[in-house]
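I hope you will forgive my troubling you with a question about protein structure. The matter concerns a single protein, recorded as an amino acid sequence and a row of backbone structure tokens. Please examine both parts with care and let me know of anything in them that strikes you as inconsistent. Thank you for your consideration; the sequence and its tokens are set out here:
***
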Amino acid sequence: MMKTNTIITIGRQFGSGGREIGQKLAKELEIPFYDQEMLDRAAKESGFCKEIFESHDEKPTNSFLYSLVMDTYSLGYSSGSFTDMPLNHKVFLAQFDAIKKMAEEGPCVFVGRCADYALEGNENLLSVFIHADIDSRTKRIARDFQMTDSKAKEMILKTDKKRANYYNYFTNKKWGDATSYHYCFCSSKLGIDGTVEAIKDMIHIREKNKDARIW
């Protein structure tokens, strides 16, 4: 079993197996795995019901509200100003704060929700993006959701668009672009287990070179 101090964030195309890869990686490293758990934590600490976070989950707001959120987030906020914020602002800030607090507790795996951006600058961060060819993704979604290939492909396109819009709104990066992450892996070429092993290899290289300041 490999010991690590690394915090891994996983962005993923819908149907690429990113969540399964994250779960297997966390299990093999014996560290926590966070997906929906991020919403649970944000709800618990903010006092909002979980349904509010689920209704806003990885969905972009309009650019005007986004700019107000970013101004507030970058400048910090008092309890009074937080109370006066629109719900969109509160959900955004609560989720990002939850991610930061969870990362402070030690190595873990985060899936989605701009976790790589929330943890930008964290010296223990390793961010990856999982993609796969459309045929393999279509087969996976058709199988998992018991639907036709055409319905599966439609679902993939809609979900990827939603994730891209959310990521592009709330970060200074572009969803799925290689320059937005430390590493990108193709799960349809490597397979689920192969992708897990590839990420573990990158973690090993990162930690080996960290003291030498090569990273």
